[in-house]
């Protein structure tokens, strides 16, 4: 399992996952109002906290994306990416089990962008694995000595 | 030169070897005041931090993300023009009989033939609309409604004898949400085409557009 701690693996995973998060965040940050409808359509949260999620979640996605791409606090960002992806997957899974295909709100704020919920769960899985690898297996640091 | 706050230091330029506090060390790690015969300490290696020991820094980093998110999200919601209620109020699901009435394609077609001013609103994507839509339908996507539902359009819809909203199929409820939004803006509850455009096409009713 040592290869999971390869710094280059973490850089590549960070770049790819970070780019995905940045792409996902941009439309929602520009206008969070359609996101309220999308979250509501999941029919999981009560009306109260829906707006709170729509207000703050895109910013978390943006910060996580930036951190993963740049490598600044990458492990902390990977922990949040894991939490977000687990939450997204759970919400999609609930609707997949209900037999409802929802607009996931992943990369678009159109409530009509409906996909098969099972496929969306499957799409989240590789991202979730990448986030878990970055969070749970921090890269081995290069050995340094005090000698110049 | 060392810059920074607390333990977060940035070291600039060539630095003296670090030894015990208050003592300078040479390249062989022999420190000032140390017996020259005494063996220099072994080079220190930065080692992998075991999982439980790295948790403190990780908790601090995750908390940092949370605080930054709260600050940015709150600041962004104070910008005029894109404000959202802090706590979701009044976001109730659209209800049939209150926000809209369902209408099957046959009845919608009959309404179109019997009433002079029937307005159709198409909530599908631009490409789907261009490929084919109900004759005379107006395209309204369920995003940026403030820009699309202009006072002129709302006045036009109020003057219509019937407003019928439709989506791609019966699977999505965007058309119901748009109907609810129209009712909130003072229109009588519109009709929603049951089964959407798919059912309209399936009933062999007239279609307008490039993909006929």
Describe the structure.
- The complex is a heterodimer of chains A (148) and B (212).
- Chain A has 148 residues and is an all-alpha fold.
- Helices cover 69% and strands 0% of the residues of chain A.
- Chain A is globular and about 45 Å long.
- Chain A starts with 6 loop residues before the first helix and ends in a 12-residue tail after the last helix.
- The relative contact order of chain A is 0.18.
- The model of chain A is unreliable at 144-148 (pLDDT under 50).
- Chain B is elongated and about 105 Å long.
- Chain B starts with a strand and ends in a 10-residue tail after the last helix.
- The relative contact order of chain B is 0.12.
- Mean pLDDT of chain B is 77; it is low at 1-13 and 42-46.
- The chains are: A mainly alpha (148), B alpha/beta (212).
- At the A-B interface, helix 2, helix 3 and helix 4 of A face strand 3 and helix 1 of B.
């Amino acid at each position: 399992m040592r290869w999971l701690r390869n710094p280059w693996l973490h850089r590549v995973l960070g770049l790819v996952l970070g780019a995905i998060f940045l792409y996902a965040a941009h439309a929602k940050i520009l206008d969070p109002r359609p996101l309220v409808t999308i979250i509501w359509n999941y029919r999981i949260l009560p009306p109260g906290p829906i707006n709170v999620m729509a207000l703050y979640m895109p910013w978390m996605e943006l910060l996580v994306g930036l951190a993963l791409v740049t490598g600044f606090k990458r492990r902390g960002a990977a922990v949040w990416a894991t939490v977000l992806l687990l939450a997204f997957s759970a919400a999609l899974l609930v609707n997949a089990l209900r037999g409802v295909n929802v607009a996931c709100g992943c990369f678009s704020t159109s409530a009509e962008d409906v996909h098969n919920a099972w496929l969306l769960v499957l799409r989240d899985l590789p991202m979730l694995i990448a986030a878990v690898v970055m969070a749970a297996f921090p890269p081995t640091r290069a050995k340094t000595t005090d000698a110049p | 030169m060392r810059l920074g706050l607390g333990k977060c230091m940035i070291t600039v330029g060539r630095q003296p070897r670090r030894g015990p506090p208050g003592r300078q060390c040479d390249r062989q790690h022999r420190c000032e005041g140390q017996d020259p015969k005494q063996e220099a300490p072994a080079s220190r290696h930065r080692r992998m931090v075991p999982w439980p020991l790295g948790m403190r820094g990780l908790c601090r980093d995750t908390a940092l993300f949370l605080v930054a998110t709260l600050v940015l999200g709150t600041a962004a919601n104070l910008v005029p023009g894109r404000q959202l209620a802090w706590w979701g109020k009044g976001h109730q699901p659209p209800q049939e009989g209150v926000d809209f009435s369902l209408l099957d394609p046959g009845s919608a077609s009959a309404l179109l033939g019997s009433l002079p001013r029937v307005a159709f609103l198409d909530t599908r994507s631009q490409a789907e609309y261009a490929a084919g839509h109900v004759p005379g339908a107006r395209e309204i996507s369920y995003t940026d409604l403030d820009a699309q539902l202009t006072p002129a359009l709302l006045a036009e819809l109020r003057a219509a004898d019937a407003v019928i909203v439709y989506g791609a199929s019966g699977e999505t409820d965007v058309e119901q949400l748009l109907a609810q939004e129209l009712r909130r803006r003072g229109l009588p509850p519109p009709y929603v085409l049951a089964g959407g455009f798919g059912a309209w096409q399936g009933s062999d009713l007239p279609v307008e557009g490039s993909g006929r």
